[in-house]
Write a structure and sequence with these properties.
The chain contains 18 helices and 14 strands. By secondary structure, the protein is an alpha/beta fold. Helix 5 packs parallel to helix 6 and helix 9 crosses helix 11. It has an eight-stranded mixed β-sheet with strand order 3-2-1-4-5-6-7-8, sandwiched between helices. A six-stranded parallel β-sheet has the order 11-10-9-12-13-14, with helices on both faces. Bound molecules: nicotinamide-adenine-dinucleotide and uridine-5'-diphosphate-glucose. The site of uridine-5'-diphosphate-glucose has 20 residues, from helix 9.
Length: 459
């Protein structure tokens, strides 16, 4: 029986390897992590991450061919293939701070493999890493190889999006497997391809060289984020001219060369990947002495910051140039719908801005934990300000009671079907609603009596 170990039981390692176990009953999968609480949650009825369809997958195989454990060394020793799926956050200090990826976790997982392995392994880079990281991993592994043990390194970046992780994994657009183009590298590539071939059509399993595979991951995220920044840049022109950004996106998206996806204007992209990976690409470009290339990609992130600040300023301006002591209700704190994840969520930036303007804020999100909201906000603002000015509320109607304005920051479907007559009745007048996700029926809201402001539209 093939044995797979996955180091890192996070948003990627957990769902990815759970789906492998689900689709490959003849493969034994052990997902390990140093974080005991996370592993305990994976072994409980309440999984540590919310993803539609994930419970079914995990509960179907857990205890059969899927295991969660903190026994990292044991799982490494037993495995034939080892996924390294640890976090690679942006460095907060030292060389490259604010841009470069922090590879400390990748390195420590790699060193652990080198230290404890007693047989040859295929080591798979699943984390998103700068181009040529596999070379450093190989150097560490080879320097620590002993007793004729061989390590082959593959790059197998993950393209799942949060909120749709399970369907993305079940039916991926493509699976990339990069390897050194040596006979051993190609053999390792085939071994991993054989695992995916249990459910992914052969033509979607793409093999290529290691560096192309590593760079393709950063490139795909940069191109996706660039589309959002492009439509957001156009949303500013729409607001200034009377054009409607949804109509512009629709018109452009009908061109088959452009396509309709990822052209939804918004308050700005969030999530743990886009900003981190673009900054990583910017750093890589600078390290390669390509300043023009670095500046080009940096602009995608700058435009995203501009969009958040532009929307905040529009809110204050419409609320008669002050929100001090006004009641602002925030609908949605997650970085996108169908996830409880708040990493780099636009809501964090906006709520902090409202705090600085000394507004009273009530926040409603259907999935994000209260503690998470508190942690995100107090990372930037004093705890006293949080205590005094912020309430986390578990009911949208309660959250909007007595509000001067509602600000929609996450595109949760439930926000479309709330009873806005009831909400309007309980708000201060004039009652404002700011749609940062272009999901609400503006006409209906205006008929109720709301003052409605939508990104990329002048109503
Ligand atoms: N979140 C996504 O949607 C997504 C999608 C594609 C790729 N990625 C990439 O995948 C990687 C992982 O992302 P994530 O969101 O799953 O991160 P995460 O923070 O949710 O999970 C990483 C886990 O690795 C564990 N870990 C760190 N070092 C370890 C070690 N030495 N031994 C054992 N466990 C260790 C941490 O405790 C943590 O639980 C990142 O490089 C990210 O860029 C993320
Ligand atoms: O038209 C759009 C599409 C998305 N977003 C926002 O963009 C952010 C990112 O969304 P999405 O890409 O759907 O979620 P992620 O989970 O961050 O997934 C991205 O990042 C992952 C981590 O690298 C990759 O694996 C995925 O392919 C890539 O889509 C969110 O804030 C969305 O609300 C928009 O504003 N407009």
């Amino acid at each position: 029986m093939t044995k797979i170990c996955c180091i890192g039981a996070g948003y990627v390692g957990g769902p990815t390897c759970a789906v492998i176990a689900y689709k490959c009953p003849n493969v034994q999968v052990t997902i390990v992590d140093l974080n005991q609480a996370r592993i305990d949650a994976w072994n409980s009825g309440n999984l540590p991450i919310y993803e539609p369809g994930l419970d079914e997958v995990v509960f179907a195989c857990r205890g059969k061919n899927l295991f969660f454990s903190t026994e990292v060394d044991k799982a490494i020793v037993e495995a034939d293939l080892i996924f390294v799926s640890v976090n690679t956050p942006t460095k907060k200090s030292g060389i490259g701070a604010g841009f470069a990826a922090d590879l400390a976790y990748v390195e420590s997982a790699t060193r652990r493999i080198a230290q404890v392995a007693t047989s040859s392994k295929i080591v798979i880079e699943k984390s998103t890493v700068p181009c040529r990281t596999a070379e450093s991993m190989r150097t560490i592994l080879e320097a620590n190889s002993h007793d004729g043990i061989r390590f082959d390194i593959l790059s197998n970046p993950e393209f799942l999006a949060e909120g749709t992780a399970v369907p993305d994994l079940m039916k991926p657009d493509r699976v990339l497997i990069g390897s050194l183009q040596t006979p051993e590298g190609i053999k390792a590539q085939q071994a991993l391809a054989a695992v995916y071939a249990n459910w992914v059509p052969k033509e979607k399993i793409i093999t290529m060289n290691l560096w192309s595979s590593e760079l393709s991951k950063l490139a795909a995220n940069a191109l996706l984020a660039q589309r959002i920044s492009s439509i957001n840049a156009l949303s500013a022109i729409c607001e200034a001219t009377g054009a409607d950004v949804d109509e512009v996106a629709y018109a452009c998206g009908l061109d088959t060369r452009i396509g309709p996806k990822f052209l939804k204007a918004s308050v700005g992209f969030g999530g743990s990947c886009f900003q981190k990976d673009i900054l990583n690409l910017v750093y890589l470009s600078e390290s390669l002495h390509l300043p023009e290339v670095a500046a080009y990609w940096k602009q995608v992130v700058d435009m995203n910051e501009y969009q958040k600040s532009r929307f905040s300023q529009r809110i204050v301006k419409r609320l008669f140039n002050t929100i001090t002591n006004k009641n602002i209700t925030v609908f949605g704190f997650a970085f996108k719908k169908n996830t409880g994840d708040t990493r780099e969520s636009a809501a964090i930036t906006l709520v902090n801005y409202f705090l600085q303007e000394r507004a009273n804020i009530s926040i409603y999100d259907p999935k994000v934990d209260d503690d998470q909201i508190r942690a995100d906000i107090t990372e930037l603002a004093p705890v006293e300000a949080f205590e005094k000015q912020i309430k986390v509320v578990h009911d949208p109607y309660q959250a909007a009671k007595g509000a001067d304005a509602i600000v929609v920051l996450t595109e949760w479907d439930e926000f479309k079907t709330l009873n806005y007559e009831q909400i309007y009745a309980g708000m201060n007048k004039p009652a404002f609603i700011f749609d940062g996700r272009l999901i609400l029926d503006s006409k209906k809201l205006r008929d109720i009596g709301f003052q409605v402001e939508v990104i990329g539209k002048t109503l």
